[in-house]
Amino acid sequence: MILAGGSGTRFWPASRALRPKQVLALGGSELPLIAQTARRIEALCPAERAVVATGRALVEVTQQALPWFAPDAFLAEPVARNTAACIGWASSLIHRRDPEAVIAALPSDHLIADEAAFRGAVEQAFAVAEDGTIVTLGIKPDRPETGYGYIEAGSALSRGVHKVQRFVEKPDRAKAEEYLASGRYFWNSGMFFFRADAMLRAIQKHMPALASGLERIERAAERGAETERRETKQVFEALESVSIDYGIMERVEKLAVIPADIGWSDLGSWHSVWELGGKDARGNAGKALTVFVDGDRNLVEDLRSPGATPRVVALCGVSDLCVVQTDDALLIIPRERAQDVRKIVEELKRRGGPV
Amino acid sequence: MILAGGSGTRFWPASRALRPKQVLALGGSELPLIAQTARRIEALCPAERAVVATGRALVEVTQQALPWFAPDAFLAEPVARNTAACIGWASSLIHRRDPEAVIAALPSDHLIADEAAFRGAVEQAFAVAEDGTIVTLGIKPDRPETGYGYIEAGSALSRGVHKVQRFVEKPDRAKAEEYLASGRYFWNSGMFFFRADAMLRAIQKHMPALASGLERIERAAERGAETERRETKQVFEALESVSIDYGIMERVEKLAVIPADIGWSDLGSWHSVWELGGKDARGNAGKALTVFVDGDRNLVEDLRSPGATPRVVALCGVSDLCVVQTDDALLIIPRERAQDVRKIVEELKRRGGPV
């Protein structure tokens, strides 16, 4: 289950409302992030058994990013109602196809550098999930990051598998340093592994409104695709917007975390792209037509269409900047302020023009 | 006589070897600088009596910038041999057409904000030049500029007209402050006014090699245009490269300066474009599709072709930058380092690609 509903603005101008981060080729690959995600899990779950949950408006661009996926692999949420509704709905559909299914629910827009370690962790997670446990991968922190939620690991269930003690919100710096030092806290990767029936039971118990909505959809499906489609829309529109963490994970009993060291990054901003990508001796990252004179640690991304006129990009006497160009936009922002691209998007919205 | 031989790189990427500064629409006008120059003098010297001295490779682009000029107004130097050869040759050609001509020799790539004051000064200069004096406009300095040469004014010849005491090279800061305080020093604008015959006499006296070259060309002209063309090429190739300041102005006796306060700028760099152009309350200069968030005193120039895709340019958290885009290049440089675009041009040349 590939989760591809996001349409954030942190990668403006590359990401847009209808061209979200997961369909961009970031992280040094020629493949969109979502295709990297699909390829990464392919050996364990081939495309025929994958589903991609996305928004109605994003189906086309998502299909383009996964051209080897069959059309029925794509689930279009009628309206966005956060991850609990999305994962619940997709779990219910998978359960109909295979009542014994064990599911990996994977965000579509993260990077994982160590794919072998990732596959090892996933195999272990699938095994642990067999008995109805919901399993999450916890990323071993290498810095006191304040931008992520953490999972506190409790007692060991087996080698490399712990009970989840609790989920904790993004900490302040002092807390984050404490977490890092303790060795018991892991970043919440948003990757979950569970039996479809176990998830549906958890929803039944902790989110009864969602459960009855999913049952309505299932009953409607017996009366044909059109009825199912209409009912799905009505159900979704009536649902609350609740995250899977808040709605399910923080409440279920049988919850395990597998600490994983897999070179994970959520690629949160252009700064992360610089951080994770190749750089020259002065820390500058840019392709062939880029000229850096007297400047360090800059990122230059040319994301214009393949047919665009070759363009020299010359930076002289500037450092620590992100410079990103697309066909219709140019962004210049310091790396350390890369999160602030949202301010630009807000300003563009305020002006009433396209974003 | 419009002097349009320059092909500098200070306005890279807008200026290129074959698209020099004078054909760019800078300074807030829709007209190229050279067309602004021609329009500015038009009331005193209509296009039919103007000549434009430029390099052979620049004729086409120069004609495009002055579409209302007749083709025979353009003089193409076979090779560049600096301003003495250029002004000498053009003076000789004008003298053939009109032995009584009084010439204004004007750089084609400067800005003049106060056109009425400029015309007043020019009229005065023409009057003074009638008796064979070579006249230059000296710009009243408003700051201790170290980037220009100065002219020291001597005794008054008439109201607002002084004998030239001497030309001085670009001063250091201390000297420049002294010059500014004295009130006797003016910026060398490179604008000269003289009778054609007076200039030819001065060349005869101070640059005899140039004088004999010009005579060879004149004799060749009697044998037809093709002979003249061939001889001009041979003469130019054999000439030394000498500036009019060094070769003539620093040596002639009858030399006057008219101090002028005309809002002059030589538009030396992108910094000057920012300095002289319109700006918002935070000192940012950019057209409609520019977004400035948390930044001050930036210049954004979009010099792409009129047919190019509209492009948002968003600057967030940066200040005092020049950002210039053309169809095939993008420049980012701090305003105070704007002179260093030459370093980029050097780097591009080093790489062997187009500049």
Please describe the structure with a list of short key phrases separated by commas or semicolons.
355 residues; 5-stranded mixed barrel; homodimer; alpha/beta; 34% helix; 3-stranded mixed beta sheet
Describe the structure.
The structure is a homodimer. Chain A has helices at about 35-40, 60-65, 80-95, 115-130, 175-180, 195-205, 210-220, 225-240, 245-250, 270-275, 340-350, and strands spanning about 1-5, 50-55, 75, 100-105, 110, 135-140, 150-160, 160-170, 185-195, 255-260, 265, 290-295, 300, 310-315, 320-325, 330-335. Chain A has about 350 residues and is α/β, with parallel strands linked by helices. A five-stranded mixed beta barrel of chain A has the order 6-9-7-8-10. In chain A, strands 13-15-16 form a three-stranded mixed β-sheet, covered by helices on one side. Chain A has a two-stranded antiparallel sheet with strand order 5-11. In chain A, strand 7 and strand 8 (about 160-170) form a beta hairpin. Chain A starts with a strand and ends with a helix. The model of chain A has no long low-confidence stretch (mean pLDDT about 95). The interface of A and B includes residues 12, 291, 328, 332 and 341 of A.
